[in-house]
Amino acid sequence: xxxxxxxxxxxxxxxxxxxxxxxxxxxxxxxxxxxxxxxxxxxxxxxxxxxxxxxxxxxxxxxxxxxxxxxxx
Length: 73
Known about the structure:
Helices cover 45% and strands 25% of the residues.
């Protein structure tokens, strides 16, 4: 089963992204974060099949998080 992490500080945007992913893969596990700190906690040791994120978050730059995830996984 695929696992996706959806990161956006706006709950409506996260729900819209979740709806799109569910349309493609109804069995997917969707983790949702509203901040970079929450995203890091939810990502844990990886095991994600995909990440969809907002690049401008209140607690930092989403692009930096992509680079961080790439280094770790």
